[in-house]
Amino acid sequence: MTAPPGSAQPSDAELVARVLAADRVAFAIVYDRYGQVVSREDHLIQLNVKPDVYPIFEKNGVQLHGAVKVPKGDYWLRTGIYDERTRKVGTMEVPLRLVKDEVASR
């Protein structure tokens, strides 16, 4: 990304903020041991990061919170985020054991 001749160049934080000001889809999917989907939640997230906040995100990461209903039992919880602008996906999967019906937070 370049600025027109004679104009000020944006800072690195301003460039990153422009990249972060895009829609993301966050999801949580709960699978049983056979790979069948038990529960799923999807959320559209729009991040509008100000340049002065970017260093905080860079140091601590972006924290998103949500919940998904899950019956008692043993499952796998897969969470992820899809960046519509870059078309990239990041996921994480962890085992999940619930001893009673409840809402699992992610």
Structural summary, described in words:
The structure is a single chain. The chain has helices at residues 12-20, 54-60, and strands at residues 23-31, 37-46, 67-70, 73-83, 88-98, 102-105. The chain is of the alpha+beta class and 106 residues long. It has one domain (12-105): Sandwich (Immunoglobulin-like), CATH 2.60.40. Strands 2-1-4-5 form a 4-stranded antiparallel beta sheet, with no helix packed on it. It has a two-stranded antiparallel ribbon with strand order 3-6. It is elongated. The two termini are 35 Å apart.
CA radius of gyration is 18 Å
The total count of strands amounts to 6
Shape: elongated
Low-confidence stretches: none
**Number of helical regions:** 2
Q: Main sheet, how many strands, which sense, barrel?
A: 4 strands, antiparallel
Sheet-strand content, in percent, reads over 45%
Question: What is the domain total for the residues?
Answer: 1
How is this fold's topology laid out?
Elements lengths: L11 H9 L2 E9 L5 E10 L7 H7 L6 E4 L2 E11 L4 E11 L3 E4 L1
